Amino acid sequence: MEKGLFITVEGGDGSGKTTQLAFIKEYLTEKGEDVLFTREPGGTALGEKIRSVILDPANKEMVPMTESLLYAASRAQLVSEVIRPALAAGRTVVCDRYVDSSIAYQGYARGLGESVTTINGYAIGDCIPDATILIKVDPAKSHARIDEAAMDRMEQESAAFHRRVYEGYLALEQKYPDRIVGIDGEQPIEEVSRQIARQLDRLLMKKHGL
Question: What is d(CA 201, CA 64) in angstroms, rounded to the nearest whole number?
């Protein structure tokens, strides 16, 4: 059976991920791929309940380690229940956020460091993405795109916090150049989509042995 393909999409809040995920869905569907789309935190019945706790603005007392463990718990469930079975069946899996988010948000921005990588090692095991598309937008610009009235608990964090998240992502891009593909999200939407399509074509050719 053909091995599945695991793609994750990352970026700070307001980076345009939602728009590009819609493009990816349309593009892969048109290519005839058997594709499964999921998200983090969430993606399972249990994971969605955890998501509601993490992102609820009312939970202001949540400490960084609690936050990190909740993300990892949701991720462990998603990997076991959704991602691994889909990949084993030869499907293409696209996940909106994954372990890089935890490293950027909790490891770098919350200051938890390597503990986040260790925790998530238990959550995901060897389930590493084949490729990660990182949409890069300066947080001073990306945060302005978010409706202030609808911000979740993470989006409500300070500008300094979101700056550290961005720097964390840039550090990850440098650390894993073979996996993480950074794309300038400040370009016109169509150009961002074009560059993503080029990466998707490369991955599909590799998957199908072309």
Answer: 38
Prediction pTM value: 0.95
Angle, alpha carbons 108-98-120 (nearest 5°): 65
If we measure between CA atoms, which residue out of 35, 43, 12, 13 comes closest to residue 207? 35
Opening angle at CA 141, ends 107 and 143, nearest 5: 55
Task: State pLDDT tens for residues 32-65.
Answer: 999 999 999 999 999 999 999 999 999 999 999 9
Contact between 137 and 14 (Cβ < 8 Å):
yes
User: How is the chain classified by DSSP, letter by letter?
Assistant: -PPPEEEEEE--TTSSHHHHHHHHHHHHHHTT--EEEEESS-SSHHHHHHHHHHH-TT-TT--HHHHHHHHHHHHHHHIIIIIHHHHHTT-EEEEES-HHHHIIIIIIIS--THHHHHHHHHHHTT---SEEEEEE--HHHHGGGS-GGG--TTTTS-HHHHHHHHHHHHHHHHH-TTTEEEEETTS-HHHHHHHHHHHHHHHHHHHTT-
Instruction: Tokens for 6, please give them.
Output: 């695991």
> Do 124 and 79 meet the contact criterion of CB atoms below 8 Å apart?
yes
